[in-house]
Amino acid sequence: MKTFRLLPLTLAIGAALALPAQAQSLLELYDAARGHDAAFQAAKSQYEANLSKADQAKSALLPTVNLTAGASNSRIDYQEPAGQPARSFDNQNVGINATQPLYRSANYASYQQGTRQTELAEAQLQTAEQDLVVRVSQAYFDVLAAQDSLAFVQAQKAAVAEQLASARRNFEVGTATITDTREAQARYDLVTAQEIAADNDLRVKKLALDQLVGKPDTSPYPLAPASTLPALAPQDVNTWVQQGQEQHPAIRQARLAVEIAEYETDKAKAGHKPTLDLTASHSINRNVGGTALSSTDSRYALTTVGVQFNMPLFAGFATQNRVKETLALEDKARADLDAAQRNIAQATRSAYFGVVSGLGQVKALEAAEASSQSALDANKLGYQVGVRINIDVLNSQSQLFDTKAKLAKARYDVLVGGLKLRQANGTLKSEDLQGVNSLLTPPAPPAETPATGAPAAAPATTPTTPAAPAQSK
């Protein structure tokens, strides 16, 4: 009886385990990657560290306050006059000292460097975020492309199997030669090998996406079949380049590096300049048992307020050589800025023309897909009436499915290329994923049978291997 009572629960658990993993959108997987990806987490930690380091520079302009305390015991042994008894006494003191810089050129330059370091940290974090957007999108569409490739190979395998069965039947009735059967068998074996490779490629791509987002068995939303790829806006490469020169985080980092180098020169030149500080102190001293000059207990407080001036005169030519070093580093920073501007302009142009070329390829492959389908239909009809041979049909099938795979890959490349274009000119934001995500659609739920409501079994996409054809004698 217990066995029958547990049967419904067992069936429910089995049905739950048999359900496919829930699909995720591009935005969902990106949000997961933000909280899991090690490279992005390291960039965030570095950003926080840089902010704290920048705040440290403010301390050079603020006062410093120190609390001091001490206690000592002294003993006096008299040699003259003779016979004077030895005695000891204690000294106890506590005090507070404060210093406020009034004029320190190097400290002000350090403070300015700290403010630039904050902006530099923000630009570095923006770069890391853009890199994460592209990496997640690339891995996402790599999985979709691998799924499409496997699906097309399996569809081609089913078509070749059907053609192989037809060739074998024609051979048995004497309307075809053994050559048609062997050609179909060879093509079937080749497609089987391609299916194994495509299945392995899909596993590898899924593992890469799983590792990136920190979720097992990810299942991306597919691209909507009737979706229209977004056009480039603006359609002027110079506008994209100009935006990159103004907004790219790498150029911002290079410009900030030039300013930081200039302030470093100011710090070096400050080695020749005087410094002026405001100082104040207050201390309390207590002598128990007197002092070296008196045997009477005493207690007194001392307060001092003043300014301290310091003028460097000679440092062994260290300051002059330090200035030469920082001036050379300024030139290097300016050269790095020029290189960054040129490289980003070149990368932006390459990415722009890559997207334009991708859109053109999509249109051409769409036309090629229609032409390949027409050619396959014509070859099938010609094979039925005897004016085409089996290899013509097989070649047409291969061409059609190869075109379908290339078209799907080209569409994905255009979407990722649009994101890479924005990354190239530095305007990419996480909000840009919303436009791409809107082109994706959740997979349709499995069909249910009217009687039980359970999901209907999916038709097998991979046919069984046909039996080897009979050899001619």
Can you tell me about this structure?
The chain has 473 residues and is α+β, with helices and mostly antiparallel strands. It folds into two domains: 22-62 and 104-273 and 318-437, Outer membrane efflux proteins (OEP), CATH 1.20.1600; 68-102 and 275-311, Outer membrane efflux proteins (OEP), CATH 2.20.200. 62% of the residues lie in helices and 12% in strands. It contains ten helices and four strands. It has helices at residues 2-18, 26-36, 38-56, 105-173, 178-213, 237-247, 249-269, 318-385, 390-424, 432-437, and strands spanning 64-76, 87-103, 275-288, 298-310. Strands 1-2-3-4 form a four-stranded antiparallel sheet, with no helix packed on it. Helix 2 (26-36) packs across helix 4, helix 3 runs antiparallel to helix 4 and helix 7 runs antiparallel to helix 8. The chain is elongated, with a radius of gyration of 40 Å. It starts with a helix and ends in a 36-residue tail after the last helix. Mean pLDDT is 85; it is low at 1-20 and 449-473.
CATH top level of the largest domain?
Mainly Alpha
Question: How big is the Rg?
Answer: 40 Å
Main sheet strand line-up: 1-2-3-4
What is the number of independent domains?
A: 2
CATH architecture of the largest domain: Up-down Bundle
Distance between the termini: 64 Å
Overall SS class: alpha+beta
CATH homologous superfamily grouping of the largest domain: Outer membrane efflux proteins (OEP)
- Summed up, the helix count is 10
| CATH fold name of the largest domain | Outer membrane efflux proteins (OEP)
Amount of beta strand: 5-15%
Largest sheet: 4 strands, antiparallel
Kindly state the number of beta strands.
4
Mean pLDDT: 85
Helix content: 55-70%
